[in-house]
Input
Amino acid sequence: MIIKCPNCGAAVEFDPVSGKMKCAYCESIFEMGELTPEEETKQDVTQEPAQDRMECNIYSCKSCGAELAVNGVEASTFCAYCGQATIVFDRVSHELKPELIIPFKVQKDQAINAIRERFATGRFVPNEVKNFDVERVCGIYIPYWLFDTYYYDRQIIKATIRNNDKSQTVHYYREAECNFNNLTLDASRNLNDDSSQRLEPYNMQELRSFDVGYMSGYYADRYDMKNTDLRNLAYSRTKELFDTEVLSTCSGSGKTIVSNAPKMSINKETYAMLPAWFMTFRYNNQPYTMLINGQTGKLVGAVPFESRKAWKSGILTFFICALICIPLAITMLLNSLYSGENTFELIGGMIIVSIITMVVGFITLGKIKHSTQLTSSQEMNKFAHDRQEG
Amino acid sequence: MTFVMIILGIILGLALAVGLAFMITMIRVSKSNDLGNSKGDFKSFSRVPLHMINKRDRINPNKYR
Output
C-alpha cells in the first residue's frame, strides 16, 4: 500500500505534528481520508470482505523470528525488534483491519532526545550509554485487543493492625463492582507482555477510527493472537486491578483475600493499533532496545548500571548511615539496659530491620536486572527462540 | 555490661547501616537506570471510582462466608 501525493507523485506519510498527511517531497498537506492508497496487484491473496482487511508488505527476521507489516514508503534493512540486518521481505498479506488507532504524537527526534536527556541525568548510567549512537529507531504500531470488562466481587480480607505495640488480626468485608474500559492487551507474540504493559497508560480519549493513512511511514506489528487467546489474560488483569483497588480501602499490613466470589464479563473486544518507538543502541557489543510510548512519550527500558559509581555511592551512603545508626543503636541499647526494658526485643527488632532493608535492596536489584534483560534484545531473541521450539 | 552493650550497639549499628546503604543505593540506581517500570493502574482503565456496594470493617469472618 502506498499513498502517493497527487501534486508530485512522491510518497505521503502521516505527520504527527499536524495530525494530517504530508508529502515528504513537496510538503503538501492533506486531510486524513482525503487520499486513497494505490493498490498493488501482484499477489494472489484470500478474498475477504474489503472493509475487514488491509494490504501490507510482510517481512520476517531470520534472527529473532519477528514478523512485521510495513506500509509503503518505509524500506528497511534492519529488524525493528532486534536490530539485526537479517530481514527478508517475503510477501504481501491481507491483514485484519483494526477498528481504532492512536496516531503517533511523538516524533522520532523527540523520542531520541527524550532518551538522551533522561540518560544524561542518570547518575549511574555508564558514560558510553550517555553518548550512545542510535543504531536503529523506528515507529511501530503495536496490535492490541482492547477489552471492556465488568467485574464484581464479594471479598473477606484479612489484615494485621498494630494497637499499642500489639498485633491484631482483623477482617474486612467488601462488596464492589466496576467497569473497566479499553484494557490494553498486546496481540503480538513477539513483544513481551511485560514490556508492552510498561508502555501503559495510553490516553484512550484520543482513539480514532482506523485510517490506513496513519500507518504510512511506520511499521505495524502483525497481530498473531486472537481476542479469544487473550480472554484469560483480560480476566487476570481485571482481577488484579480490582483487587488492588479494593485492598487499598483496607488498613493494616499483610492484607490477603481469604474468601471471594467473583463474577466477570467481557462486554466488548476491539482491535486497535497503538504507537511506540523502538530505539536500539549498542553497549558492550550488546544491543539494547528502549521503547517510547508514541503518544505520551513515556520511556521504557533499563540499562546496566556502572558498578564503580554504585560502589562509590554505596560506600558514601554507608558512612553517613553508620554515623547515624551506631550512636542511635548504642543509645537505645543503653537506655533499655538502664530502664529495665526488654533488651532482647530491641536487639531482635534491629536485626529484623537490617534484614528487611537488605531484602528490599535485593528485590530492587532483581527488578533492575529483570528490566535490563527485557531491554536487551537477547530477551526478545530468547522469547522468539522459545516460541519456535515450543 | 555497659561495654557489651556498646560493642553490640556498634555491631547492630553497622548492620543497620549496611542494610540501609544497600537499599538506598539500589533505589537510587533503579531511579537512575530503570525507566518506566510501572504499568497502567486502576485509574488508567476505569473512568469512575470503584462502586462499593457494601463495606464493613472489623467483621466476624464466619458470619459473612
User: Anything to note?
Assistant: The longest strand of chain A covers residues 134-163. Chain A touches chain B through 87 residues (CB under 8 Å). The two ends of chain A are 34 Å apart (CA to CA).
